[in-house]
UniProtKB/TrEMBL annotation:
GO molecular-function term, one example from the UniProt record: ATP binding
Subcellular location, record wording: Cytoplasm
Substrates-to-products reaction catalysed: AMP + ATP = 2 ADP
Organism (species): Methanocorpusculum labreanum (strain ATCC 43576 / DSM 4855 / Z)
Gene3D superfamilies: P-loop containing nucleotide triphosphate hydrolases (3.40.50.300)
Name this protein carries in UniProt: Adenylate kinase
Keywords, alphabetical: ATP-binding, Cytoplasm, Kinase, Nucleotide-binding, Transferase
Main location: cytoplasm
Amino acid sequence: MSGKKVIITGVPGVGKTTVINAAFDKITAEGVKYQNLNFGSFMFEVAQADGLVTDRDQMRKLDRIAQKRLQKTAAEKIAAIDGNVIVDTHASVKTPNGYLAGLPEWVVSAIMPDVIVLVETDNDQILVRRLSDETRVRDVEGSKSIAEHQEMNRAFAAAYSMLTGCTVKIITNADFLLDKAVDDLVATLR
Ligand code: AP5
C-alpha cells in the first residue's frame, strides 16, 4: 500500500484529536493530501449497528473478545485505504480487566505505520481537561493513574516499533502551547 501511514495516540483527554484536526488543516493548506481517520469511529459504526453500545465511551467496557473483533474490522477497513493516512487511535485502552493493546500484532502489521506519535502532557493538565470536557463520559481517575497509562503507552509504542520498524515520535501538547504541538505534528506529516 503506498503513502505515509501515521498513527497518532495519547491517553483520553490529552487533546490528540484537537492537535490532529489543526495539523490536518495546516498540512492540507500546504497542498499535502492526507485522509484523517478515527479508529474509534470505525469500531463504533460496527458496535452500534450490532446493538452493543449507544455511545463511543461504552466500547472500552465491552468484553475483550468483542473489542478485539471490532478492532479487527476497523484495521481491515483502514489497511485497505491507499495514500497518506492519519490514524487517530490508542496505543493502549484502559479496560476494567487491564490494558488492552490498541494495535495488537494483526492490527499494526496490517497498517504498517511509518511512525507512531505519542501525544503527551502533564498528568494534572489531562485531569483538568477531562473534568472540563462535558461532551464525553471520561473515566474518573487520579493523576497517578493517568501517569501509569502514559508510561504504559510508551512501552506499547516500543513494542509496535519492534514489530514494524516504525519510529516513535513524542509530541507534548501543553496548556497554552497547542500551536507548538500542531507545528511538531505538521513537521512529522510532511
Ligand atoms: P477516541 O475517539 O480516540 O476517543 P478518546 O480516547 O476519548 O479521545 P478523544 O479524541 O475524545 O480525546 P482526545 O485525547 O483526543 O482529546 P480532545 O482533543 O477531545 O476513542 C473512542 C473509543 O474508541 C475509545 O475509548 C476505545 O474504546 C475505542 N478505540 C479507539 N481506538 C482503539 C483501538 N486501537 N483499540 C481498541 N479500542 C479503540 O481534547 C480534550 C480536551 O482538551 C478538549 O476540551 C480540548 O479543548 C482540550 N485541549 C486540547 N489541547 C489543549 C491544550 N494544548 N491546552 C488546553 N486544552 C487543550
